[in-house]
Design a protein that fits this description.
The protein is of the alpha/beta class. 48% of the residues lie in helices and 15% in strands. The chain contains 22 helices and 15 strands. It has helices spanning 2-5, 31-37, 55-66, 86-95, 108-127, 133-137, 141-152, 177-183, 190-198, 201-207, 260-280, 284-292, 302-309, 335-348, 371-389, 407-420, 437-451, 459-470, 474-483, 488-495, 499-513, 520-539; strands at 10-14, 26-29, 47-50, 76-79, 98-102, 155-160, 165-168, 212-214, 225-231, 243-250, 317-324, 353-357, 360-366, 393-398, 430-432. Helix 2 (31-37) links the parallel strand 2 (26-29) and strand 3. Helix 16 packs across helix 17. It is elongated and about 95 Å long. The protein starts with a helix and ends with a helix.
Length: 543
């Protein structure tokens, strides 16, 4: 872990048990999470990231951890306050927990994925023991970065298409500020980014596979770099391969090797396969989580999942599903929103798990049986996503999930709600299964009728043909009459016509269709058939 994250991100302040300690799970927590954890005996993650935790709260928590049995203590804590407080260091040492200092400029939403990536690579390595080293290297961007650094000279950073660092080689004293800031998840100096734009570097990266030589800039304190784009593998059949990222090679104390451009071109091809594969296949942990939610064949070994993700074995718990409103676009367009949902969930509950499946995101919140608490959190998240991402979400909450084996069934119920309440948006931004049961069941009944032609009443065609020939809207008058339980005056007021006009229209409907709207069975049948007609008319602009 320490080797992969590099001293640019984290360094050891204290390690009572030494650095040879197993880490297999991680959680991002704040002060309220630590307070809620006190006195519980649930499984704890091996590594805590203390985000916004004050020294006082951290010391109190370490003192409480010291009283626990060893199996209920974490192995390590990452904190931005680690180096500046002797009291904090002493409390961690007394608790037998390693204390790691995170660079103050590092972003937690950058550090958490880095840590999870290290854990996932370790799991894949364990699963692939016995395979040739070359194949193992091909599955690991960090290993690729180190290999390029060794063969081309200099310091390597591999970035995605949005210039976020995915992996990097080990740093040394020759790293310039631009590299350090990039590794910490921070944007590079704006003057330098403008210079790259003016020099045409970004344009050439988007348009070609050539290795670009970017000169040093003394005023901006940046060293010389070579950079090459990472493009979608050509065997995918795309006429214009999509750019997946780039590989940057910063010159260090020694010049680049003579074949550095060739090394970069070869590394670009390998990186393209790795990134493309990662876009289309979840991580080992991600696969477990998707199977927990019933995707990818479903079925999961609950004891293994509990150990891997530090989850409680039994409930209560809540499952929350999120869907974009309107036309969601391609499935991979939801990835950014899914990452934001995952981060919010981890902050709200450190042992939460989240995943994106298709155009929806799902969150499991262990330890929750209050629908109001979970709904309030979901509403806040929906508001935050709308404010920061300019997209609008709907959410459905399933509560009282009593064990992990019921999560997949809860997701199915959540999907039923998201499918059945789309037409009621925006009233239904966040809803529970109980609140939306009527709308869901009615929607599914209409779906069933719509799929079975023999359940359609052909007598309605006579009514629709009459309206078409006479430019009238008798069917809408019938719909208004039925919606107001046969109250003529209310229906007339809704359509802004005289009650006598409404009475005449209802008699005409009965004559044309051959139904008696005084009969409960006839009323129920006509109301269902008109509801299906209304749904079809609403869908016409999108068909």
């Amino acid at each position: 872990m320490l080797s992969a994250l590099d001293t640019a991100v984290v360094r050891v302040v204290g390690a009572p048990a030494g650095e040879d300690v197993m880490i297999s799970s991680v959680a991002l927590v704040d002060g309220s999470d630590l307070l809620a954890e006190a006195g519980t005996h649930a499984p704890v993650p091996d590594l805590y990231l203390h985000a916004g935790v004050t020294n006082a709260d951290a010391v109190r928590w370490f003192d409480e951890v010291a009283q626990r049995s060893p199996e209920h203590r974490p192995a390590a804590v990452m904190s931005k306050n680690a180096a500046g407080s002797g009291v904090l260091q002493s409390a961690a040492r007394q608790a037998g927990v390693a204390l790691l200092e995170v660079h103050p400029k590092a972003r937690w939403d950058h550090v958490l994925p880095l840590v999870k990536g290290v854990l996932d690579r370790s799991r894949r390595h364990q699963a692939a023991l016995g395979e040739p080293d070359l194949l193992a290297m091909d599955t690991d961007l960090f290993g690729l970065a180190q290999m390029v650094a060794q063969n081309a000279g200099g310091l390597v950073s591999i970035e995605d298409a949005q210039s976020h660092v995915l992996a990097y080689s080990a740093s040394n004293e020759s790293a310039d500020e631009l590299r350090t800031l990039s590794i910490l998840g921070r944007e590079g100096p704006r003057d330098y980014l403008r210079a790259l734009e003016q020099w045409g570097v970004f344009h050439r990266l988007r348009e070609s596979d050539e290795v670009i030589d970017v000169p040093a800039h003394s005023q901006l304190a940046t060293e010389r770099r070579l950079v090459v784009s990472i493009r979608q593998p050509s065997d995918e059949g795309s006429a214009a391969p999509r750019m997946l990222g780039s590989i940057w090679l910063q010159q260090g104390a020694e010049p680049f090797t003579a074949d550095a451009p060739d090394v970069l071109r070869g590394a670009s091809a390998i990186a393209a396969r790795i990134i493309w594969r990662s876009h289309n296949a979840p991580s080992t942990e991600g696969l477990l989580i998707q199977r927990l939610f019933g995707a990818r064949g479903g079925g999961v070994d609950v004891p293994s999942l509990v150990g891997a993700l530090s989850l409680p074995v039994t409930g209560p718990a809540a499952v929350v599903g999120f869907a974009l409103t309107g036309n969601a676009g391609p499935a991979d367009g939801f990835a950014g929103v899914g990452s934001m949902i995952r981060l919010h969930a981890s902050s709200f509950r450190h042992d939460s798990v989240a995943t994106v499946i298709g155009r929806r995101a799902y969150v499991l919140l262990p330890g929750y049986k209050s629908a109001s608490t979970v709904s309030a959190w979901a509403r806040q998240l929906v508001d935050d996503v709308e404010a920061k991402r300019s997209v609008v979400l709907r959410a459905a909450v399933a509560i009282h999930v009593m064990d992990l084996g019921q999560v997949a069934a809860a997701r199915t119920e959540v999907d039923r709600v998201l499918d059945g309440t789309a037409a009621t948006f925006p009233e239904g931004r966040v809803t529970t299964l109980d609140e939306s049961r009527t709308a869901v069941l009615l929607g599914e009944i209409l779906d069933l009728i719509g799929r079975r032609p023999e359940l359609y009443d052909p007598r309605l065609d006579v009514l629709f043909d009459y309206d078409l020939r006479h430019a009238s809207s008798l069917w809408e008058s019938a719909e208004a009459y039925l919606a107001r339980h046969g109250d003529v005056r209310q229906a007339a007021a809704a359509l802004q016509v005289h009650p006598n006009t409404m009475r005449y229209r209802i008699r005409r409907v009965e004559d044309i269709v051959g139904l008696d709207l005084g009969d409960p069975s006839d009323r129920l049948l006509l109301e269902l058939q008109l509801a299906l007609h209304r749904r079809r008319k609403l869908a016409e602009p999108f068909s």
